[in-house]
Amino acid sequence: MALIILALCIVTLILLITAFKTNPFIAFLLVSVSAGLLLKMPPQAVIASINKGIGDTLGSVTIIIVLGAMLGKLVALSGAAESIANRLKNIFGPQYLTYAMALTGFVVGIPLYYNVGFILLAPIIFSVSYSSRLPVVYVGLPMLAALSVMHGFIPPHPSPMTLIGIFHASIIKTFIYGLIVAIPAIILAGPVFASRLKKVGTIYPATSVSDNSKPLPGVLNSLLSSLLPVIIIIIASVVTSLADKNSTSFQLAHFIGDPVVAMLITIIVSTYTLGIRTQRSLKEVMACYTDSVKDIAMILLIIGSAGTLKQIFVDSKLSDEITALVVRCSLEPLALAWLVTAVLRTCLGSSTVAGLTAAGVLFPATQHTAINPELMVLSIGAGSLFGSHVNDTGFWLYKEYFKLSVRETFFSWTMMESLVSFLGLTGVLILNQLV
């Protein structure tokens, strides 16, 4: 009976979001309350689980997600992303232009969230398309593939960071494994796949992503400012692995290497390097930060509400039946996680909602089976990118910006997202045999 309730909850969630166009935050809360009551939890226990689910989920990731949004917005609006793109275009030359675009998306995609990144970086795609006289799809798809992969696989993006918290994974291992999986996926689904799309789309007039009245930051400044959180965390990780646990250097490195502290240091440094140093007032930089938080407010609410459903499943003891079901399933657990997430992504449209819903269902099984938590994060991340189509805002964003037909969008965007997803799963399964 409990598993029937589980299936009913998932179907109801899908219908509320897709058929009735209910806001995902409200949909998760409605389904969580209903699930708790149907599973015969006392009403007060249901409310307590919901509060705990939101608190536990948001408590570990909110600061990082907000600071990451601030950094990403500043990287784009300061012209740092444009500076990186211009330099890479000059280095790679016209023959390897798509690889330069993919590398740009890879670098700036570390701090930049996908939807925000698409809107802010689209003018760079148009500018390169215009200057090189090449169709916008051929030029832009490699950058968008990189942005999408980074959004789905790599912390500090909202979904990977939340999944890391849910599965108690290591942020360093997830980042390293994520890069190993991401690089071949980006190359094959980006430049290689784009080479077959040279006749799709047209060429558009050049536009600028940054404020033309301000000087662009230098490429070294742009790279270091964009990648500073990663640099700090990696250096701190090396120090903590070599230093004595009772030493001052270990304690300091452990403190600085915490993702929250690393992101905070980065924001302080970038406020100067990408803000004040590029002739922007402190007031302008703070306004940029304020706007960035508005962009992700609903993402935070959805993440928190998804945590309530997971907590209801755990507190109601439904987790035991879910675990038994997964253990009996003949499918490899990582492949099963990908499949569940891919189905939810196809039904729901949102990669973040699909990933967090799948995590809520699959989390109990990881408590009793020997599943690598970092690879579970990446498997769900890969599944959450599968088959973007008409129920996904990213599909329409791409179609309208690039002025494509629905058919052209399916054969370029949807195919690219599905390739990224399959390649991500393949990389995860190969890594599972090696680590």
UniProtKB/TrEMBL annotation:
It is found in: Cell membrane. GO terms for cellular component: plasma membrane. It is a multi-pass membrane protein. Keywords: Cell membrane, Membrane, Transmembrane, Transmembrane helix, Transport. Coiled coil: none annotated. GO terms for molecular function: gluconate transmembrane transporter activity. Belongs to the GntP permease family. This is Gluconate:H+ symporter.
